[in-house]
Write a structure and sequence with these properties.
The complex is a heterodimer of chains A (about 550) and B (about 450). Chain A is of the alpha/beta class and about 550 residues long. Chain A folds into three domains: about 160 residues, Rossmann fold; about 140 residues, Nitrogenase molybdenum iron protein domain (Rossmann fold), CATH 3.40.50.1980; about 170 residues, Rossmann fold, CATH 3.40.50.1980. Helices cover about 40% and strands about 10% of the residues of chain A. Chain A has a six-stranded mixed beta sheet with strand order 1-12-11-10-13-14, with helices on both faces. In chain A, strands 3-2-4-5 form a four-stranded parallel beta sheet, with helices on both faces. Chain B has three domains: about 150 residues, Nitrogenase molybdenum iron protein domain (Rossmann fold), CATH 3.40.50.1980; about 140 residues, Nitrogenase molybdenum iron protein domain (Rossmann fold, 3-Layer(aba) Sandwich), CATH 3.40.50.1980; about 120 residues, Rossmann fold (3-Layer(aba) Sandwich), CATH 3.40.50. Chain B is built from 17 helices and 15 strands. In chain B, the strands form three sheets. In chain B, strands 1-13-12-11-14-15 form a six-stranded parallel beta sheet, with helices on both faces. A four-stranded parallel beta sheet of chain B has the order 4-3-5-6, sandwiched between helices. In chain B, strand 11, helix 13 and strand 12 form a beta-alpha-beta unit. The relative contact order of chain B is 0.13. Classes of the chains: A alpha/beta (about 550), B alpha/beta (about 450). Chains A and B meet through helix 3, helix 4, strand 3, helix 5 and helix 6 of A and strand 2, helix 1, helix 2, strand 4 and helix 3 of B.
Chain lengths: ~550, ~450
């Protein structure tokens, strides 16, 4: 590939022997002109200027009707992604049965109920008001109250949350009033989310609404400063496949105290207490940056971006924490842990690398994973040809420096922005401005995320909100060795003889975070790209010589 | 006879035992050749339904949607349907687009038939795909409503009084069965030398091989021509004991509109219900039942006699779709299993009657039949009665774990085993497989608990 050969004019940059501009034209060829014009702004050939500037990519815009996309809805982002992993809140879906059913333990968030005293775990339950005709016509508030009462009577939970589905907003049920009333009646925390599916353009709107709700109703309720040194929150880590467990293991080894996690392996008590931490670490910037920003404004807790996907990235992230707390004890401990953990990682990598070296990957997933997982592929000597987010915004692609330039469209304007001011009593900047400047001089960036594109080579294709049609085209053109997306894309891609790794549910495997996770991932990718099954796709008597050159395994 | 309804215990639904109506409709449209289902509503519906069906079928699952936004929710989805149809046609060149509504478009009262008419009027010269609409608000009924509604919508929209084929044709509406079941039914039709209009037929579209050439839409499915031909068939067969009393179905439409005689049977699960199917097919085709089926039936009975000692008196709980459970209950009665609990999230008020019709009367007072129930209600009922085995879909796992009773997976969804598509329930072969799986599970339990470690059973 010509990516390393800088200074060449863009038209000469080849991507895996293809001209990316021509590939882009092919992706757009079948669309009506208006659709093609819209998609053209979401398909970008990457180019990183010396000052780190990258091309503008249109993102967080509505998917065109009839294009088969990857995205879910606002409800999915709120109930499924952000609050789903918390085990001890009873989540009630207010709506007809489908939405609750399809989000019933569907994501593989793991949790450890024994780590809270009451052992509550409601994740295996699916509560729904199961609205019928009658409620659509006469309103569902009465049934919702009853549902909250029943959930309370049966389980005596610490908190109940209510999630609105499409019809709720249309018929005008006031879920917030119902929640206030039941909170007063039951004496436990009851709060609602107006996360109707039609709001926003993707699950991203739901993340924002969830962030607002937790911040408004839960964060700051418990001011107890609990024991422990180097007290941090881990934000935007959802414990898919046990990722959070692996990260917790590393924190424990390093002597870092995890106050709360948003929201893998989490408990509502920890959210209530999370503002007492001294540093916020952000994993998935897209889904959780709002809480971090609000916590900094109101309570003075700064945040830094981390990434525990990839062994080198894990080491780097641990060092960032040490750098922030700036104490010899922690720095030495972190270095010792890295030194102890790395040999096993390096050995595993060396073992598989002869089989993975030079192989080509594509990643289209989420709002951070398409970025983070490029680290692991790089460690395997694999190239990322193309990547994109399902629901990312421009800042996730181009970095937070573009935030002031992002135009807020009608879809985003409807998502509430909370007015946050410093708490008169509890605002306590954890480090002084002078300390911040000093740390920044040493390379520790606060409130910063550079995005995915600056780290991708020139000529690679960055595609936002990839459609099924474009997926098919990319596969036919590039025949990558592995494709990373979700379950909806998995079986279509694999029909073509190309393995697909699910980066939402991990194909129910994992963990892939931290050092042990890296080893798991190396082995998994080795299994997938070295599999011999594809060579049997055609029986010996099936002869299609003109097609036989078109498959990745040949 | 005992029966319970959810309303007597809880208002809310906890751990539902049914899915939503658009899912059933989408599944039917996936079983039509070269077709694309289109959900009219917000994108979450199609994403969730695609995601959910894939976890069972493990196959490509393209389901388009009209992507409602906040503005659409206020001003209506006419423009969205038009744009969606334009884009689907360009990308897929389908023969049929099956449009199912969602809670959102139904609540705002979108007039989809009018949108379709406007679309046709706006494209008078073009060779448009068949456009079929079914109303599927999920606040009315379950996924089975959506399923049967879509089957009816297909024939209502497309059936014509075409002349009969050279071979007598039969319309077979099998209900919501597995790809393996559909494949088996097709073989049976062929063995009677009948041209079958099997609606729907997702045996290939949702259980296909790896592709050695590129396909936009997976091959297979009921051809649109076969849907048109349903009006000229010699007879219709509709499967499902609860469905059998439904006043408006695909079968009743064809009977009323085109005088196609209708045979309403149960799902052909077990000996008695399979016998009825074979008898009806023999009558329609004018041919005797092929010898291989008589032989297979004989071998099945031989196996039942041999294994009766394992199953007789074993108490089972059945749960899932109303017609599947009723079919399984009939089978249980035939092999000595006592269906102490029959439960469904649907039912339509006719479930108990359907179940009692096929289970021997001597079991009736040991049976609890529950319709419109969720898993919390089912589990509560099971805590009070003695049960040895659970037979149902994957969502019963949590209950099976708590009750410490094995779960034999049947029907839909099966997302914690690898063979959801390959499970065979119908015909003598399906009965044989069910019998073998159940008997082996009983033996395995006995063997595990035995202190000595015997190996003869």
């Amino acid at each position: 590939m010509a990516m390393g050969a800088n200074k060449k004019p863009a038209e000469n940059v080849k991507l895996d022997r293809q001209d990316p501009e021509k590939v882009k034209a092919r992706l757009l060829a079948k669309y009506p002109p208006k659709v093609a014009r819209k998609r053209a702004k979401q398909i970008v050939i990457n180019k990183v200027e010396p000052d780190g500037k990258v091309p503008v990519i249109n993102s967080n815009v509505r998917t065109v009707p009839g294009l088969m996309g990857q995205r879910g809805c606002c409800y999915a982002g709120c109930k499924g992604v952000v609050l789903g992993p918390t085990r001890d809140i009873i989540n009630i879906t207010h709506g007809p049965i489908g939405c609750g059913y399809y989000s019933w333990l569907t994501r593989r968030n793991q949790t450890d109920p024994d780590s809270t005293a009451d052992g509550h775990n409601f994740m295996t339950y699916c509560f729904s008001t199961d609205m019928q005709d009658e409620e659509i016509i006469f309103g569902g508030e009465k049934k919702l109250k009853q549902a909250i009462q029943e959930a309370y009577d049966n389980f005596k939970p610490k908190a109940i949350a209510v999630f609105s589905t499409c019809p709720v907003g249309l018929i005008g049920d006031d879920v917030h009033a119902v929640c206030r009333e039941m909170k007063a009646k039951l004496g436990i925390n009851v709060f609602g989310f107006s996360c109707e599916g039609y709001k926003g353009v993707s699950q991203s709107a739901g993340h924002h609404i969830a962030n607002n709700g937790i911040f408004k109703h839960v964060v700051g309720l418990d001011d107890t400063i609990k024991d422990g040194k180097y007290r941090i929150n881990l934000l935007g880590e959802y414990n898919i496949g046990g990722d959070a467990f692996e990260i917790e293991r590393l924190f424990e080894r390093c002597g870092i105290t995890l106050v709360s996690s948003y929201s893998g392996n989490s408990s509502i008590d920890a959210f209530a207490n999370s503002h007492t931490a001294d540093l916020n670490l952000i994993m998935c910037h897209r889904s959780i940056n709002y809480v971090a920003e609000m916590m900094e404004t109101k309570f003075g807790v700064p945040w830094v971006k981390v990434n525990f996907i990839g062994a080198a990235a894990t080491a780097k992230s641990l060092r960032k924490i040490a750098q922030y707390f700036d104490e010899k004890e922690l720095t030495e401990r972190v270095e010792a842990v890295i030194a102890e953990e790395m040999p096993a990682v390096e050995a595993a990598c060396a073992e598989v690398r002869p089989r993975t070296e030079g192989k080509r990957a594509m990643l289209f997933v989420g709002g951070s994973r398409a970025h983070h997982y490029q680290e692991l592929f790089a460690e395997l000597g694999m190239k990322t040809l193309s990547a994109g987010y399902e629901f990312g915004h421009r800042d996730d692609y181009e970095g937070r420096k573009v935030l002031p330039d992002i135009k807020v469209d009608a879809d985003s304007r409807n998502i509430e922005e909370l007015e946050i001011t410093p708490d008169p009593e509890r605002y306590n900047p954890r480090i002084s401005d002078a300390q911040k400047v000093a740390l920044e001089a040493k390379g520790l960036q606060f409130s910063a995320y550079d995005g995915m594109m600056p780290e991708m080579p020139e000529g690679t294709m960055v595609i936002d909100d990839l459609s099924q049609y474009e997926t098919d085209q990319l596969i036919r053109i590039f025949k990558p060795d592995i494709f990373c997306a979700g379950i909806k894309e998995k079986y279509t891609v694999q029909k073509h003889g190309i393995p697909l790794k699910q980066l939402h549910s991990y194909d129910y495997g994992g963990p892939y975070a931290g050092f042990k996770g890296a080893v798991n991932f190396y082995r998994e990718i080795d299994r997938m790209v070295s599999s011999r099954v594809w060579q049997y796709m055609r029986a010996p008597w099936q002869e299609h010589p003109e097609l036989s050159a078109t498959y990745a395994w040949e | 006879m005992k029966s319970a309804r959810k309303t007597e215990t809880y208002t809310a639904t906890q751990n539902a035992c049914n899915l939503c109506a658009p899912l059933g409709a989408a599944l039917v449209f996936k079983g039509i050749a070269n077709s694309v289902p289109l959900l009219h509503g917000s994108q979450g519906c199609s994403t969730y339904i695609r995601r959910y069906m894939i976890s069972h079928f493990k196959e490509p699952m393209d389901i388009a949607c009209s992507n409602f936004g906040e503005k659409t929710a206020i001003f209506g989805g006419g423009a969205n349907i038009k744009l969606a149809l334009d884009n689907i046609r360009r990308q897929y060149h389908p023969d049929l687009v099956g449009i199912a509504t969602t809670c959102l478009s139904e609540t705002i009262g979108d007039d989809v038939p009018m949108f379709i008419k406007a679309y046709r009027d706006a494209n008078p010269d073009e060779d448009l795909p068949a456009l079929v609409h079914v109303a599927t608000p999920s606040y009315q009924g379950t996924h089975m409503q959506g399923f049967h509604g879509a089957v009816r919508a297909l024939v209502e929209t497309l059936a014509e009084a075409t002349s009969r084929n050279e071979r007598p044709a039969v319309n077979l509406f099998p209900g919501m069965v597995s790809p393996a079941d559909l494949r088996h039914l097709k073989t049976i039709l062929a063995d009677f030398d009948l041209a079958g209009n099997l609606v729907p037929d997702y045996s290939d579209t949702l259980n296909g091989p790896l592709w050695t050439e590129y396909h936009r839409i997976p091959p297979g499915g009921t051809p649109v021509a076969a849907l048109r031909a349903t009006g000229g068939a010699a007879a219709s067969i509709e499967c499902g004991l609860v469905l059998a009393d439904e006043p408006k179905t695909a079968g009743t439409w064809l009977q009323e509109r085109f005088d196609v005689p209708l045979h309403r049977l149960g799902l052909p699960i077990g000996i008695g219900q399979s016998d009825r199917l074979f008898q009806v097919l023999s009558k329609i085709s004018g041919k005797p039942v092929p010898e291989k089926y008589t032989a297979r039936r004989g071998r099945l009975l031989d196996a039942l006699v041999d294994g009766h000692k394992h199953l007789n008196g074993v108490k089972v709980a059945l749960f899932g779709e109303e017609d599947l459970v009723a079919g399984l209950a009939g089978f249980c009665g035939e092999v000595g299993l006592v269906p102490v609990l029959c439960a469904t999230g649907g039912g339509k008020g006719r479930f108990a009657q359907a179940v009692h019709k096929v289970v021997p009367e001597r079991y009736h007072d040991q049976m609890q039949v529950m319709e419109d129930v969720d898993f919390v209600t089912i589990e509560k009922a099971l805590e009070a009665i003695d049960v040895d085995l659970l037979i149902g879909h994957s969502k019963g796992f949590t209950m099976s774990r708590r009750l410490q009773r094995p779960l034999i997976r049947v029907g839909f969804p099966v997302h914690d085993r690898v063979d959801g598509s390959r499970l065979l329930h119908v015909g003598y072969r399906g009965a044989q497989q069910l019998f073998d799986r159940i008997a082996n599970t009983v033996i395995e339990e006995k063997q595990k608990k035995n202190a000595v470690g015997y190996t003869y059973y």
